[in-house]
Amino acid sequence: MLPATCSSFLRRGAVVALALLLGLVGATASAPAASADEDEPQLRREGRWLVDDQGRVVIVHGFNLVWKLDPYVPPATAEGFTAADVQWLARYGFNGVRLGTLWAGITPDAPGVGDPSYRQGWQRVMDLLADRGIWMQLDMHQDQWHETYGGEGVPDWALHRPTVLSLLPPLNLPFPIGYWTPENSLVFDEFWANKHRGIDDWAAAWQVAAGWWKDQPYLMGYDLINEPWMGLEWLTCISFGCKASYTKELQPAYEKATRAIRQVDGDNVVWWEPQQLAAGQKVPTFLEPMAGEDQLGYSWHNYCQDVFLESQGLPLGDVENCWRFSQERTTTALAQAERINAAPLMSEWGATDNIRAVEIDAAVADRNLMGWTHWAYKQWQDPTTADDAQGMFHDDTDFSSVKTDKLRVLVRTYAQATAGTPLAMDFDAATGAFSYRYRSNAIDAPTEIFVSPLHYPRGYDVRVTGGHWAPGTGGRIEVRPDVPGQEVTVQITGR
């Protein structure tokens, strides 16, 4: 993740200097296979949408679950992840997660050789999530490449320090400052150039993961790499979007990894991300379609620079500017997704306790019918963040320590599954007023709308035009059209 709060003078000084300088105002191992029949629910891409096994458009609201410490999978403890966490997510209507399945965990010992214990560790979590119908995007997370540079992501055997610089001690700097060091950037450049067979081995790790989880119920695909850093050309990335880096490095790497996955999994969505600095700067992105590929996703991040400046203690930002920023990044993401024939998902955003910032981004997402996974569910001793004000709890072991103001903004009434085409959605987190409009179709399954348990203390009223509704399960209502093919409007208001 990008935004953060720096506590030390050294880190804050470095960020200030950078802001002034750059204008940054802003053999697989054997293991029990996941049991799945051919009709197990998974998400597929149709147009700009994700659709379920019944053909309904699914909008995801959820969280990132990325355990960044060795062994890179959350333990079965109160701090980590248990059945109680799944119950909490389902209670509040969160129907999706982004799981940090790291390269360092998948093939820790040798290229292409999977670790069955790592598979089993995540399988425990996946089974819990699938039991409650929560969709899962698998994220090969990295931050600053490796622990040597203050980050995490790649196996020890995949770390190759540049020859000349390896004569000196490595610089281990706080996140995200470590990215700007010449050595860390050069390591990324060598990776994109496939020096030391880095791209090949990364693609092989994805092939292992896809072989493990291709039949996983409630899978929504594979996010190839978190926030790719383009190396020494990062200045052009932050200023102009670094088109050449996409053409010569990112696109070929993504296509190679996608082809590796397709050798074992021809169906699940493969998610591509733009270069890292596109998350916090108004720069274009330059991904292109992949010949013969129609199951791509566009996994994009949204971090308003005004909130970043505020988190650094710099009195230069105005959170209200995030309305324009968030809409501009969303518009760019929608255009990029359309260009590569992909379904978009705002897979990272937030990372702050600034409630107004969270409210703005969530509202913009609703108005653009954009699914999301917020950063983050729990703080989880995150080593690559400069902001400890993350997660939903003051204490990861205690649900009663939930940040209630943030929860009220993130828990929303929204259309989880639509039998038709979504047209417009709006939710007022202050009053609970909700409106939704969609073009129905002939699918037999109902449109399901989750109704927030926080916003209607005296109950709520539902008004449907062009259809009718009935109570559903799990805090949802079910809506059906009077005549398939007609437009349906749903309004929910508190009493």
Task: Walk me through what this model shows.
29% of the residues lie in helices and 20% in strands. With 495 residues, the chain is of the alpha/beta class. The strands form three sheets. It has an eight-stranded parallel β-sheet with strand order 10-9-8-7-6-5-4-11, covered by helices on one side. It has a seven-stranded antiparallel β-sheet with strand order 1-2-3-12-15-18-17, with no helix packed on it. A hairpin with a 5-residue loop joins strand 2 and strand 3 (57-58). Helix 6 packs across helix 8. The two termini are 40 Å apart. Residues 2-37 have low confidence and may be disordered.
Short descriptors:
19 strands; alpha/beta; 29% helix; 12 helices
Which regions are unreliable across 5 or more consecutive residues at pLDDT < 50? 2-37
> What's the N-to-C terminus distance?
40 Å
Shape: globular
* Biggest sheet, spatial arrangement of strands: 10-9-8-7-6-5-4-11
Q: Tell me, rounded to a whole number, the average pLDDT.
A: 92
User: Radius of gyration from the CA trace?
Assistant: 22 Å
Quantity of strands, as a count: 19
- Estimated helix fraction: 25-40%
- Characterize the main sheet: 8 strands, parallel
Helix-strand category: alpha/beta
